[in-house]
Write a structure and sequence with these properties.
alpha/beta, QueA-like, Thrombin, subunit H, 2 domains, six-stranded antiparallel barrel, 6 helices, 17 strands, globular
Length: 341
């Protein structure tokens, strides 16, 4: 299976640069994943497609201001860090630009020098391990000095940080937002719960590997990034009871999907669990844990469009994407949504 099999034409003006003022006013394409039939709606209409007894699974991760811009301590050269994963004792894994300016032993100062990063290791994939030196509380310094790590295809400045967070974001640790959840408002969630829809909550901290292109022509040779997840017993029980009672498990986003599919047994049973997942889902995969999927429109040749294609068919998804381009849908993080039912 070749990455070119998941390519599609996307005009640059279809890439959403800013979020809509009303989260739920985004458009919603409803795709019957078996027949390929398409409906055009708005996201607030999602309540028509989620029924009493169904369970919506949301990712409560919260994006940290993981983009730090500083200068080499010895030369003053500009250096940018993107924090990926917190390790132990003040160490972080990160991406550094430019990499040549961040060799082992190099130190980078941020702000007035209240935060300093020293490169301690260069990994095989080019990522760096850095050790931070600071006084006080790291999270407070990060809030002061860091910027939201918007994807590279977003060129516009984000005026309100909260618009790159879901309204239910709670657990800090992501380097990117679980963007399918950006369309929900508190009012919409309350409306669903009043209808008898259950809400189950998990956390998967999204890494910037989400935006890395598949470089290998043969997608089977692609190595997925690893991301940390956890779900407690209370929320696992909500999902399991839903399935036991004949309701549908509806994943909000590919992050919730990857978590559930990583930990599910063959019968769709979800245990309370935490760990790291590097699951790669592409056509031919047999889903065990989810019955429907809410997601955004993804990059050509990305692992995310491969996952969506696995949940339907490649032909149905590429046809839907072609229709979305023709109908003027907005793509990617701040773009419109799709429901695969």
């Amino acid at each position: 299976m070749q990455k070119q099999d998941f390519d599609f034409y996307l005009p640059e003006d279809r890439i959403a640069q800013t979020p809509l003022s009303d989260r739920a006013s985004s458009r919603l394409m409803v795709l019957d994943r078996v027949s390929g039939e398409i409906e055009h709606k708005h996201f607030k209409d999602i309540t028509e497609y989620i029924n009493k007894g169904d369970c919506l699974v949301i990712n409560e991760t919260k994006v940290i201001p993981a983009r730090l811009i500083g200068a080499r301590e010895d030369t003053g050269t500009r250096v940018e860090l993107l924090l990926l994963k917190r390790l132990e004792n003040g160490f972080w894994e990160c991406i550094v630009y430019p990499g040549k300016k961040a060799r082992v032993g190099h130190r980078v100062m941020f702000g007035d020098g209240s935060l300093v990063a020293e490169v301690t290791q260069v990994k095989d994939d080019g990522n760096r391990i850095v050790r931070f030196e600071y006084e006080g509380i790291f999270e407070e310094l990060l809030d002061k000095l860091g910027q939201m790590p918007l994807p590279p295809y977003i060129k516009e400045k984000l005026e309100d940080r909260d618009r790159y967070q879901t309204v239910y974001a709670k657990n800090k640790g992501s380097a990117a937002a679980p963007t399918a959840g950006l369309h929900f408002t508190p009012e919409l969630l309350n409306e669903l719960q009043a209808k008898g829809v259950k809400i189950a909550r998990l956390t998967l901290h999204v890494g910037l590997g989400t935006f890395r292109p598949v470089k290998e022509d043969n997608i089977l040779e692609h190595k997925m990034h690893s991301e940390y997840y956890y779900i407690d017993k209370e929320n696992a029980d909500i999902i399991n009871e839903t399935r036991k009672n004949g309701g549908r498990v509806i994943a909000v986003g590919t992050t919730s999907t990857r978590t559930l599919e990583s930990i599910s047994d063959e019968n769709g049973f979800i245990p309370a669990k935490n760990g790291n997942t590097d699951i790669f889902i592409y056509p031919g995969y047999k889903f065990k844990a989810i019955d429907a999927l809410i997601t955004n429109f993804h990059l050509p040749q990305s692992t995310l469009i491969m996952l969506v294609s696995a949940f339907s068919t490649r032909e149905n998804v590429l046809n839907a994407y072609s229709e979305a381009v023709k109908e003027g849908y907005r793509f990617f993080s701040f773009g419109d949504a799709m429901l695969l039912k």
